[in-house]
Amino acid sequence: MNRLCNSLEPRVMNDDMLKLAVGEQGPQEEAGQLAKQEGILFKDVLSLQLDFQNLSFNNIEAIEGLDTLVNLEDLSLFNNRISKIDSLDALVKLQVLSLGNNQIGNMMNIIYLRRFKDLRALSLSGNPIAEAEDYKMFVWAYLPDLVYLDSRRIDDHMKAQAEVKHQFSIDELKHREHLIQAQQAEEQARQAELEEHQAAFVELLNGSFLFDSMYAEDVEGSKLAALHGVGELLEAYKDKFVIICLNIFEYGLKQQEKRRVELDTFNACVQEAVQENREQGKLRIAKFEEKHLLSLSAIRDESDLASMEARIVAYSEDITELSSVLMTLEMQLVEQLEETINMFERNIIDLVGLFVENVQSLMAQCRDLENHHHEKLLEISINTLEKVVKGELDEDLPDDVRALFVDKDTIVNAVGTSHDIHLLKIDNREDELVTRVNSWCTHLVDKIHKDEIMRNRKRVKEINQYIDHMQNELDNLDSGDILD
């Protein structure tokens, strides 16, 4: 997009102002009107000026609302009231930044600009910061890739001196930046891994997360863990439970890979079929157009009216035949793709069904473990109650735990409540997994069917437009030559 210019009076940028600025600064002729009709693609904007105009200053005090300009290379906010350089993180391709005649006074704003690796030209003249004694040396040292500062090329010798002067501080800054980058890379890797697990519908099943969640809200279970023998029982229960969760997790990743391969294979088949069909259509069109030029020339050169009309009829029949051929090719493709889609739908539904069936079987094992643990815990609790009643308990229980052993109903209810919480957590995780994978399957299949309908409509429209164009050429030639 060409360089952009605009005058805005409000003090904070917002979406409406940005649209107005980009709209006014973009192409104003046919391309500009088309962009306004179809909607402005902010990612296509390369240069934007929001600075001084003949009528007024923009008076922008804060840099906001530019996150959509991801490909912006040149930004001018000259002559405003900006006091802080921030909120430009999305502008990763920024090369030229003009912030002259603003109110930037803190030298730390320069450090913020280190994240823009492509930044080559910076203008800060007219800001309080530019009056500082060490201004230029600081900028040269902390922005080593900068080529121009305040419209003047930076001397390499002076840049080297600046780097030496600030070397200690810069080394410390680089160390902090490396630590932050390492942390960010680690977090991005964790997030990517989590998203991969979510795509397989088995996130947080690669460890004790589900088991721990069962006890996170289990007040009674936490109390009962203090009973003699429960600790060992709980540890054994957790070990077996986590193994089952890991089995679900590993199985889920393998099934996700199978679904991915199935989808990739399907997409490749569709693309191949569409491409082959397109090539056949192009060949038929090429043959028609080769004959088309000769036919039009022959019609123009024909002096006999009857012969001309005969040629026109013949050519019109050729157009009709081409239309029929192209439509037949499209119908053949529709039938071919319908068969491919139906086969894929059966395969993916089978894969999902098998996945759900096996996960439910593994989740049932988790419930079996919980039921077994519940029976053992209840047994220990009843035995403890009998000792409490007989005064034979030789262990010192916390007051809140001892309060559970007033009678059998109280302790049975406590153990039962713990059991219900655990089963609910297991059931909810199973339901969530099954619901999500089934929903994914349904939406995927629906999208594939809708995409094919849209492809078919688009292709039919292309064919009709081409045939109409050929027919209009003939009609115009027919009318003109006959009138002549």
Structure description:
- This protein folds into two domains: 15-165, Leucine-rich repeat, LRR (right-handed beta-alpha superhelix) (Alpha-Beta Horseshoe); 209-483, no CATH class.
- The protein contains twelve helices and six strands.
- The chain is mainly α and 484 residues long.
- The protein has helices at residues 15-25, 30-38, 108-112, 135-142, 156-165, 167-199, 209-216, 219-224, 230-301, 305-390, 399-402, 408-483; strands at 47-49, 74-76, 96-98, 121-123, 148-149, 152-153.
- The chain is flat and about 125 Å long.
- Helices cover 68% and strands 3% of the residues.
- The two termini are 48 Å apart.
- Strands 1-2-3-4-5-6 form a six-stranded mixed beta sheet.
- Mean pLDDT is 87; it is low at 1-10 and 30-39.
Task: Give a quick summary of the entry.
The chain is mainly alpha-helical.
Please render the helix and strand layout as text.
Layout: H1 15-25, H2 30-38, E1 47-49, E2 74-76, E3 96-98, H3 108-112, E4 121-123, H4 135-142, E5 148-149, E6 152-153, H5 156-165, H6 167-199, H7 209-216, H8 219-224, H9 230-301, H10 305-390, H11 399-402, H12 408-483
Parallel strand pairs: 1-2, 2-3, 3-4, 4-5
Antiparallel strand pairs: 5-6
Helix pairs in contact: 4-5, 7-12, 9-10, 10-12
